[in-house]
């Protein structure tokens, strides 16, 4: 009987040792998921288990000075800039012991770089990962492209479950652009120019339905569509193809061939387009060229821009 009690005590101690070392894993979640310059960033340290952590210690790799130490799992960073880049460490202390998680904040600056689309295809494009945090009542999309295509092609495609052309910037001929919002479109006629880089900005606001297009820093006569409409935030955003369904349905003959750079999107209408055209410093956007999170699919390449 005494031997049985000793064996049970040994098993209990072994079980306790296993439980003590089997700590829940910590994980840091950024909000928003893809930070942009000039916007506040929150890092949330999540640790499963009951009871939860009693204390969260936030530090930055390379520094011994704590950023924050209290029961609050959220660390709020100031508007993001180059000074905020680095690796942030959360050490969560609970009855289970200590759990550690790390998060690296990077700025993906594509200055003087371009996406090259070398051939027509129905399987090559760029996915832009950031999304609006809420439905859009207005927006501005800007980009710069360089091509010798004589046929129609898609530049920017924002598709949702409701509309594959929720937002679409489409060049239907050498002298014509179409801007789609909520499945409807307006046409802007533009003067034909010699083959060169072309900078385009498209804007729209729900309150009036006014849509506008700027080409190489010059505004075209404004049009109207979809007054009172709200653009869904749940979208697939693609460069170089037109989506006929969310995330798919690409047509070889509407694909873009050429080079593209300086891609930006804001959740409001901008008016100083000349500053944008000449490469000013921008912030508070949904996504932008000086911190762009993207995925290349198929034959699309990131290359240095050729200067001439």
Task: Tell me about this structure.
The protein has 308 residues and is mainly beta. It has two domains: 21-105, Immunoglobulin-like, CATH 2.60.40; 113-304, Jelly Rolls (Sandwich), CATH 2.60.120.200. Helix content is 8%, strand content 41%. It contains two helices and 22 strands. The strands form four sheets. Strands 8, 10, 15, 16, 17, 18, 20 and 22 form an eight-stranded antiparallel sheet that branches. Strand 15 (198-205) and strand 16 form a beta hairpin. The longest helix is centred in the N-terminal third of the chain and has 20 residues, at 2-21. The protein is elongated. It starts with a helix and ends with a strand.
Quick synopsis:
With 308 residues, this protein is mainly beta.
| Helix count, DSSP H or I runs of 4 or more residues | 2
Query: What name does the CATH topology of the largest domain carry?
Result: Jelly Rolls
Mean pLDDT: 87
Tell me the overall shape: elongated
Q: Number of domains in the coordinates?
A: 2
Q: Rg, please?
A: 25 Å
**Sheet with the most strands?**
8 strands, antiparallel
N-to-C order of helices and strands:
HEEEEEEEEEEEEEEEEEEEEHEE
* Beta content: 35-45%
Task: Specify the structural class.
Answer: mainly beta
CATH architectural grouping of the largest domain? Sandwich
Number of strands: 22
User: What are the segments in which pLDDT stays under 50 over at least 5 consecutive residues?
Assistant: 1-21
Classify the helix fraction into a percent range. under 10%
Q: What distance lies between the first and last C-alpha atoms, to the nearest angstrom?
A: 92 Å
By CATH reckoning, the class of the largest domain would read: Mainly Beta
Organism: Terrapene triunguis (Three-toed box turtle)
Disulfide bonds: 142-201
Keywords: Calcium, Disulfide bond, Metal-binding, Secreted, Signal
Domain Pentraxin (PTX): 111-308
